[in-house]
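Record type: monomer structure entry
Structure origin: computed from sequence
Chain ID: A
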Amino acid sequence: MHRYRVEVAKTERQQQIGMMFRRNVPKGTGMLFPWNKGPASFWMRDTLVPLDIVYIAPDHRIESIVTAVPLDESPLPSRGPVVAVLELAGGEARRAGFGVGDRVEWAGGTAPPR
């Protein structure tokens, strides 16, 4: 089991900004994006550090993981509907041994905070 201290991007504005302009992602931290809109797609506009984008399916299992390149505006879509997206420092998912199908839980119940 791995624990992370995450910021929650609750508002539309917080979700638009995400981790843009940050120069680092401290160890053990990340950002959680509640996502009740079906499939998700992220990009790295104005994002200065590599990130792992972990798409979390409605059953709270990892749907897919994408390692994103700084400043790349190419769309990075999930493969299907998601209830949350977790951003971590680039390479963290591999380092921690995360894989598709692994279960993800967060404090506050079964639904992502909104």
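Annotation 1: Strands lie at 5-8, 29-42, 51-56, 62-68, 76-89.
Annotation 2: Helices lie at 12-17, 92-96.
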